Amino acid sequence: MGYSLGDTEMTKIRRSLLGLVLVALAAAQALGAASTTSNVTVSASVAATAKLSLSSSTVSFADADPDATPSITATEGAITITAKGKTSTGGTITLTVLAADDLKSGTDAIAITNVTWTSSGAGFVAGTMNKTSAQPVASWTNSGSRAGTQTYALANSWSYPIGSYTATATYTLTAP
Amino acid sequence: MSRRYSPIPAVCAALGFVLLAAPAVCAQTLDLTISPSTITFANADPDTTPSIAAPSITVSYRVRQNGGGSWRITLLAGGDLTAGSATIPITSITWTATPAPPFQSGTMSRTLAQTLASGSGNVQQSTNATVVFRLANSWTHNAGTYSASIVFTLTAP
Predict the structure, then answer these.
(1) In a domain, B7, yes or no
(2) Is residue B41 part of a domain?
(3) Residue of A nearest to B153 (CA)
(4) Which ipTM score applies to this complex?
(5) How far apart are CA A141 and CA A143, in angstroms?
């Protein structure tokens, strides 16, 4: 005689089997997931770089009455300076200017230290031109693109011999 | 009079079903190869090269025994680009890929795996795709040699 069960017992067994099948299917589905990986290295080189531009390459001082105009502002007005540099983290980027000589007109000379400037813009400072030591114009920490202005002025004087005076100045932007 | 049933046939049927189903879902075979294994961005002037393209890489993939299931290739960076204490956000790197579809463009992330490609079924033959990564250039990047790691993952869930 074989084993047999009542209706209630069979219902319980069917529900248990259904649950078992569902669990087995879920487990089988999870076990079926597969993956594989591959690693890649990214490298980027950033070199120290300095790039400088000025809105005007000339600075002119018109003739003026020293009594009425003791300080002659450059005809060009404010010169816009754009300094772009990449440096190491925490590094200092500097901008300096150095005159090659005094203002000269033949054998006559006006001391270049009579030329001064005022500035605007973060990092920019005022200063006095010099022919022996480069003067700071601006400085910043870390890489970046910065802009500011310089407005030059010449101290006027009745002692200046007449003539057309010229001088050259070199700006140096350094990004170590 | 109540009917009585033997549970043995039902038990055998359920076990048989599980045994038949199990081998099929455990058998996906996935292959993924990236060549070369390095992505290199050269130094460049941000004014003339606002976006630096690296030489392209080839993604070779193959999906077998997947039936009608889906598959996906993702990218996840291990961190930002770093050079000592200097960092460049990994989100500065984007990519374009062909063929599209199944490949798609995107932006790198170090927190959430980004989809590079997706599909369904099998890819019986090893198939190649080309991916070009680009780095957004900037004057604010400090000098240095930066590096980061990226994990490519092919899954068939």
Answers:
(1) no
(2) yes
(3) A37
(4) 0.83
(5) 7
Note whether A47 and A85 are within 8 A (CB): no
Q: What token pair was written down for A11?
A: 């219902």
Would you state the structure tokens that stand for residue A43, as one six-digit string? 């490298």
Closest Cβ opposite residue A36 in set B32, B46, B69: B32
Structural domain boundaries in chain A: 49-174
Q: Does A174 touch chain B (CB under 8 A)?
A: no
Has residue B136 been placed in a domain?
yes
Q: Among B129, B125, B118, B127, which Cα is nearest to B155's?
A: B118
- Considering the segment(s) A49-174 as one domain, its CATH architecture is Sandwich (2.60)
DSSP code string of A41-100? EEEEEE--EEEEEES-S--------TTT-SEEE-TT-SEEEEEEEE--TT-EEEEEEEES
Note whether A8 contacts B: Cβ–Cβ < 8 A.
Answer: no
How is residue B6 written in tokens?
A: 């033997």
Interval A117-172: pLDDT, tens: 999 999 999 999 999 999 999 999 999 999 999 999 999 999 999 999 999 999 99
Domain-located, residue B9: no
- Structural domain of residue B106, as residue ranges? 28-155
What residues of chain B lie within 8 A of the CB of A32, using their CB? 24-28, 69
Cβ separation A91–B142 shorter than 8 A: yes
Q: What total of structural domains would you count in chain B? A: 1
**CATH of residue B80:** 2.60.40
Residues of A in contact with B7 (CB under 8 A): 5, 10, 13
* Per-residue pLDDT reduced to its tens digit, B81-124: 999 999 999 999 999 999 999 999 999 999 999 999 999 999 99
A23 touches chain B (CB under 8 A): no
A37 touches chain B (CB under 8 A): yes
Chain A segment 95-134 residues within 8 A of B by beta carbon are none
